[in-house]
Protein 1
Amino acid sequence: MSSATAGETLLAAQSLSLERGGRQLFDGLSFAVRAGQLIQVDGANGAGKTSLLRILAGLSRYGFEGNITRQSSLLYLGHQAGVKQLLTPRENLAWHAAGEGEYANADIEQALAHVGLTGYEDVSSHTLSAGQHRRVNLARLYLSSSPLWLLDEPFAAIDQKGVAELERLMVKHVSAGGAVIITSHQSLQVSYPLSRLSLSAGLQ
Amino acid sequence: MSAPTTFRFCARLVRRQLVLAVRRPLEIGNPLLFFAMVVALFPLGLGPAPDQLARFAPGILWIIALLANLLSSDAVFRSDFDDGSLEQLLLAPQPLYAAALSYIFAHWLITGVLLALVSPLFAGMLGLPGNAMLTLALSLLLGSGVLSLIGGIGASLTVGLKRGGMLISLLILPFYMPVLIFGSAAVQAAVTGADAGPYLAILGAMLSLAIALAPLAIAAGLRISVDA
């Protein structure tokens, strides 16, 4: 699933500082993300978790201080599903704007089956529910070859069975030498050492 | 599994945009309908005398084409911004320059090229002489490419705003002027029997310049809009 060897640094952040609306969200935050790490970002609503993930992904380029070094390709799933209503789930994955890879039809069907969308491959996405939209987006995780995953609230609008499935997938990914940074208000039920990233105290 | 080459990725984006457009036919039909409506209004406003209409036809046709393009350019990146696809596009390993160019190319295909193809029909309604038809279609084909590229810059800068429509007009209308001047001059020249070649060559030069530079501005505009 991933080409990174265990322990290799995938992403390093040096003294990140961000101020929003007169509030210091984090100050001098430094950490390194290594292959095999499953990291949950801690913080209340408005603490700056999403801002941090956008900075790490490279979507926010201005307004913060510090350096990011990215050693590997990454996959970022944000709040918005990035699913086109007018395309079918199959087309959404095959023609995805992230340009990560070219997937065979069978791979896409398998990924959609993993997220419980068998039979929905070729229906127009606007007939799908919000949760199903998010599932189409999550199917990208099964197709991805990027070692580093940045997941912003991936459990939103996902049912319990889907959450358990997603947790299993993340453990499989980090076991294979990938790394995951996740923000979630739920506590992860995983059989894998979970690192915690505090916006004030850094990686623990 | 490796990432697709830039060319394959761009082909994929163009195909995606075209499929999206075909599934929302109103978006393709709107500029054409607008064109037809305004052309139908001019004889009512100017009087139906054929020789008078024919005299104004090059300017009228070009102004309508410009406005039709202006109206549609606002939407190039709008839906991708709203549903998060634009964020993913910015994170793609392929150069954003190429991706921006593909979006504009798709937009040009469904607005400019279509308009250029049906323009002889509308020109006939205004009594434009037959020998100027080919020049009209050619000048629209070249000119609308420039318009789409410039419109894309405005669209990329205003995509994050709720009501960017008016602002985009103010931003890009000045840059539309040279295209309008040389575009209508080409058709005018063809009507009077002069050589339209030099005007078309200048339009071609503008298009080359815009292809080289506009995607850079669009890419920067998109990064700023997504960052904000």
Protein 2
Amino acid sequence: MPEYSWPPMDERRLIGKPTKRRDGLEKSTGRAKYSSDQKPPGMLFGALLTSPYAHARVTSIDTSEAEHMQGVTAVRVLTGAGKEVQWEGTEIAAVAAVSEELANDALRKIKVQYEVLPHLVREEDLAKAGNRAKPAGEQVTGDPDKAFQEADAVVEAAYGIPVITHCCLEPHGNIVQFAGDKVNLWPSTQNVSAIGGDLGKSLEVPAANVHVEMQYIGGGFGSKFAADNWGVQAALLSKASGGKPVKMYLDRATELKIAGNRPSAFAKIKVAAKKDGTITAWQSESWATGGMGGGGMPPIPYVFTEIPNKRLNHTAVAVNAGGARAWRAPNHPQASFLTCAAFEDLAAKLRMDPLELFNKNLGYTAREATYKAQLQKAADIMEWQKRWHPRGEGPSSKNGPVKQGLGLAINTWGGGGHASQCRTTINPDGSVVVEIGTQDLGTGTRTAITIVAAETLGLPLSAITLRIGNSDYPPDGASGGSTTIGGVSPSTLKSATNARNKLFAAVAPALGATPDQLAAVDGRIQLKGDASKSLPWQDACRKLGTSKISEMGENNPRQPGGLMSQGVGGIQMADVSVDTETGIVKMNKFVAVQDCGLIINPKLAESQIHGAAIMGICAALFEERVMDQQSGKYLNADMEFYKLAGIADIGEIVVHLDITPENDKRGVIGLGEPPAIGVIGSISNAVANAIGVRVPHVPLTADRVLGALEGRNA
Amino acid sequence: MSSKNDPEVPRKPKRSFSRRGFIRGAGIGSGVLGVGLLDKKALAAPAVETKAVGPGAIPITLKINGKPQTLNLEPRVTLLDALRNHLELTGAKRVCDRATCGACTVILNGKSVYSCTVLAIDAQGKDIETVEGISSGKPHPLSEAFVDNDGQQCGYCTPGFVMAAKAFLDHNPNPTYEEVKEGLCGNLCRCGTYVGVRQAVLEAAKEIKGGTRA
């Protein structure tokens, strides 16, 4: 077994150099075909009838009229008479028809009667949750009561962060053809290699009979791993329609109601400290919902886990609303917000710079040195020392209604590399094919694999034909937990190295050398350090005669071998202006200082951090699932009132990646999630710093900002 | 506990009177409802003479990227669905399906519109430009600038952004940074690519018109 390693930093031609997105032009010219753009021959359109009630029992359902409509090929009842639905949007019936309009007409002909049952859809007031609240039991560390008694300062406050929904631009859905015992699946998934098995299980078809093809996905963010009910229903409609493919995608309202969300988190938090800012105790009573399953406790106190005295209580609240799914760094943004907001409030009470308070307590974290350096770096970029002012006492406060403020928050994440297999084929004509059953979520996976293969084979990027997104290729893990780059990079390196070594063996005699004396450099196979003895790549490959080289490479998550690792930290800072007359918060600047490992492509790594920051700005200022307790409905299940940030809302964003020789030695570490964590906390803290009072709940909408200001004045 | 009929099932087909029809009556041309409403002339007299058609399919001729194409469509079919379901021009995406996000943006008689909110029948006789059209042959400088500046991630909003940006630059070939932010606020991205998009539009403007104000 050869040893595998990344080439030394100073010898890299492609790794670590800013490289454009390889599939960028396909997307920006509209040529890229997402699964929702596919139209296999004979394709029918599927549609779902969903429950208008949050909690109800179906008392009767009559599909006869729909079934007899011309052009309707199949109708299926999914929630029959006597069955209960637990949230608005639950699938009641499904139809397939020759046109999309007709499929929707058919839904309107299905007669459903419901017995409406009592519901709970809001959880922010725990007192109203009744038997829907399930306490998880108390966890105590040290002696919190004594610590609170002996403290110089104690702050106590309540905070809240609502349920938000993924709102993937390409909705959840797929095209499925189920004919005989074979299934063709065109999904929108973060899990190309395993989704076929998931669907096959539901259909009682062997995974080997399910073929999966997906070249592009329009967003997932953690919500697109499983085959889902719409996958199964599309397959069964296809079967019932003579095996014609059925396209079934959720409409926007249903997408927001049932295709996943991020759990809420509310908490009453009490923190104690000494005069010098050393935190001595933490106490929290938190509650959360992620639908009928309740919601787990965010990992609080976040990052500062070693606070010696703690009392934690958490209650899961079951509400009649669609279920939670993984969301970019599950539970971390909530935990970072709750913790960093409480710390900032404590700093304000002590009349201390929060930068100093965070620094003072880094001993409670697992990466003291990293955070210390990052706080310094972020502060330098933000000019924190010069520009920070005590809460509500900024110079702008004397000159009119617009107040400016700074805030900070912290992040941590694991990452690592998922299980991945790669096959590199070198053909006698010199062409190279790299195959992995992975997916590119827009994170730049295609580009990264191509860079690693080209670097290893001494070829230009254009010489590599990359194939992904198909279940025929070697299996690769699901894209979750920021593990894709750490999975595909080592598997590609190993596979390309193995193929290259085979080529060296075939070429060595012609160069009068042994294989271990050869190197692949600039499109040639040559003696190491002696370009005079060399063969152009194509001439070298011709030595293969008629047989091609095809070599595998594997990443085993448990054997990183120095190629990848996990565990990062980061600091984020926000600079905002708040108009105290209108309540509108404006982003001025956002700084993300992010710990990382070996960076394959800094250009797209930076884009990941921009994206994470902007997603966090959306959640801090705009996003909220608004449930109506009277009707049980999700009131803003659309994109007018489920608000996302627009291009004018984000301010300036400055990214600093810690690319250093020391970090490079850690190998590849994923970056998708960590920079999405501290955004809400830092913006909430900046608003408190600007206006002199905490707005306890996010998003920081105008009404909440004005409400907080009025509360202060009352 | 009461038993009710499903209120989601209206007696008449949902689209017999729709927001789409309303917007059409208001004379929408620019893709922004407010602008349409301010167009007094359009309010005073509907642009299209009323003639009952449908509900069955009728021949509809659309001039797409300079080429007339005749389709047999129900009058209720939107321009977006005509492009995607009947012509396989899938660059324009269906995302919000109600004129909020801009992923379906095409250019109609020189103005960007949300094609999810234009009926195909109303697009007859107008010049329809799609993302496929502006990049047939050589990629449009905007498409290239989106790659150069990484103004995209998953890419689902990108064709809409490119078309909105093209219409914007056609009217304002030499925009400032602030004008770009203003001009493209009708499109939404979920991955968070706005930093690259802002830069891409400024760079494409230079490339197209030799602008220098950026």
